[in-house]
Amino acid sequence: MAPWSPSPVAGRLGVCPDRSRCRGSVTPAIQWAVQPGDGSRVRDVLAKARDLGAVLGGRVLLNGRRAELDDPVEPGDRVDLLPPDQPAGARAVQILAHRDGILFAHKPAGLPTEPTPRGPDSLVSGIIECLNGGRVHAATRLDVAVSGVVLCTLGRDAARRVQHWRDQGQLHRTYVAILPGPLPATGTWEWPLGKLRDRAGRNRVSPHAQRTRPARTKFEVKATVQGVPDGSVMSIVELNPATGRMHQLRAHAALAKAPIFGDRTYGGARQVVDNDGRVHLLDRVALHARRIVLPASSAEAPIPNALLSLWRTLGGKDGDWDW
User: Fold this and answer.
1) Global pTM?
2) What angle do CA 295, 301, 305 make, to 5 degrees?
3) What is the C-alpha R_g of the chain?
4) DSSP 3-state assignment of 299?
5) Most exposed residue of 39, 70, 82, 161, measured as fewest CB within 10 angstroms of its CB?
6) What is the C-alpha end-to-end distance of the chain, expressed in Å?
7) Could you tell me the fold of the domain covering 1-89?
8) Is CATH 3.30.2350.10 the right assignment for the domain spanning 172-321?
9) How far is residue 227's CA from residue 87's CA, in Å, rounded to a whole number?
10) Distances in whole angstroms, Cα of residue 229 to Cα of each of 100, 143, 233, 278, 313
């Protein structure tokens, strides 16, 4: 089952075209890819969507987060228009592949993998809505501010198979990230990591925690560009974790003195400046789970518009992602 991308309606709107993937009473959210000329505020996007026949009245999300009418937008942003009374966790759920109790789904940035104390909205609850019920377990997880492929299981037999593959080293995950600074062409990061709380009370990991566990990440630089305005080097980096520690890729990148763009917890840049001197705020971590490979199946999630847009802002080209 191939991944789907939003179908354009008048060049802007998109919904999941295959309703058989989202069975039940859930109506997919409308996705609006912001382009030049769409206006500078969320209210401008809503006006254009209404002119194209979109039915409004539900919640509005900007890049996966609840939006206000006066929130600023820029080309590359994604606005989700939820129908009235639709659970937020069901918004734009993209099931990439589903066979024999093993399911791959595409999680957008801003949505938790599983329900949290802050609320029930999550990728898992959205999948349950799409499948009209059932038991769904997330075999892999992504941080809220990270996007990409998540592996889920339906039932104990599928969960046992996935655990066996994990134990045998046959579950392979590939991520991509945008990092600052020059890096070796290839290498391995092996700082051990343990959990602790920072001064703000946030959970994070560090090699200086009282209890640490081995952590190993292979990396390969895929493209570089000289950023603006100071000519510093920026890189698209492929990351392959051999272990699965909390925040492993984010912490390892920071320890390598190349914190991922948008990763405030680990010192990543909160904003970038383009060639024209305009400041662009970053509202997500520039990390994306691109691919998961199992012995019997695999799935890949397309690079999100937010990362494509960020790379262009830094001076890169869309073709830099073709590898």
Assistant:
1) 0.73
2) 165
3) 20
4) strand
5) 70
6) 21
7) Ubiquitin-like (UB roll) (3.10.20)
8) yes
9) 40
10) 51, 31, 11, 11, 11
